[in-house]
What we know:
The protein is α+β, with helices and mostly antiparallel strands. 36% of the residues lie in helices and 21% in strands. It contains 14 helices and 16 strands. It has an eight-stranded mixed sheet with strand order 1-5-6-11-10-9-7-8, sandwiched between helices. A hairpin with a 5-residue loop joins strand 15 (388-392) and strand 16 (398-401). Helix 1 (17-36) packs antiparallel against helix 5 (140-156) and helix 5 (140-156) runs parallel beside helix 9 (232-247). 36% of the residues are buried. The structure holds histidyl-adenosine monophosphate. Histidyl-adenosine monophosphate (HAM) binds next to strand 6, strand 10, strand 11 and helix 11.
Amino acid sequence: LSEAQAKAPRGTFDVLGQEARARSAIEAKARSILEDAGYERIETPCFEATELFARGVGESSDIVKKEMYTFTDGSGRSLTLRPEGTAPVCRAYVQHGMHKRPQPVKLWYLSSFFRYERAQKGRYRQFWQVGAEALGSEDPALDAESILLLHHLLAELGARDLRLRLSSLGSPQARGAYREQLKQHLQSRQEELSEDVRSRIELNPLRAFDSEHPGTVAVMRDAPLLLDQLDAADAAHFQEVRSLLEAAQVPYEIDPTLVRGLDYYTRTVFEFTSEALGAQSGVGGGGRYDGLVEQLGGPRTPGIGWAAGIERILLAGSPAAPAPAALDLYVCVQEPAVRRHAFELLWQARSAGLRAEMELAGRSLSGQLKQADRHGARFAAILGDRETTLRDMQDGGQSEMAAETVVHELLRRLRTLS
Ligand code: HAM
């Protein structure tokens, strides 16, 4: 292997030690918060038909245009490593006839996703998201619940300096009319725009709001805003979402220029950012996608959801990862001949529910006791060819006993200690 090949591919990483424990803690918190709110776990395949994302996420999005890991399998099918989870969840909703269940159907996931992006801190080519999707109701209370759940999760995980930005994109019709208006505005001031924005006036004029190019920023300052043009039903829906957030006392900012990078959104869109993150400030975001299920060939079904990046949650300040649990017992062997007995004792201890390990690296007895200490073992059993010694690793006290009685004695002592 070359030097580069001997490392994890660019934009990917191994998860070990402290970080693995921190991730488990995030998963446990997400499970408890989401399942208590009626969300059920779903996992979908790592890859799907390319067309699912082309249609679902949208041909004009950066994701579909340049970030997908697409390959052809042995039978010539075009498949894509999932860049996001909403389109696959909608595909599963249709495939399993979930519209026949009582609505809304609430699903959550914690999985890895793939985007061919420029790798940097907080932006990877394989990354993890925790996500929640609720399908089958357009009640604005579901929007508010969804946003509040993400807020609750991020707050519980200790994410610092959070801001919630909120907007509404209205219905596809209102958005269509607005796009035309925005295109006209952009065309009328073409020469002030960046090359990139100018080339995308037709395909995706809304992305001009994302630009940091000074000329474009000036043009966008005078641009018409979709939020000012919502029809009555969309405006009332948005108003209700806002008042429910206010009732819950969760602060938010209205940002009429909030553009999410995926094409399926309708009505409510939102994003949580954290100052702690620097350039890649988005911790999590989502919104409504009332047309997506139908677009994928299913019945008309509204939906709302979000996803938050696990790596970004970690960067924004996660809960202290719990230390690995200390051992109850470390089994030491005085000579190789007793290894079989040691192995038996190890499994007796584990069957009794104790956290136990045995010596597996051929250390001397003093090396074994050091290893027991490193593991924080409460007791060590030292097996000799005749007797077994049980050593209290805290006070150094030792007593001899028959090997068969060690577990019984250990349980008794641990009980009195607790
Ligand atoms: P998204 O905004 O593309 O939305 O991604 C959601 C979150 O995933 C981001 O806020 C960020 O924390 C994390 N993320 C995205 N790309 C990367 C990356 N390259 N490296 C590290 N983290 C990343 C969605 O994916 C939608 N499916 C969310 C949604 C669910 N909307 C409705 N339901």
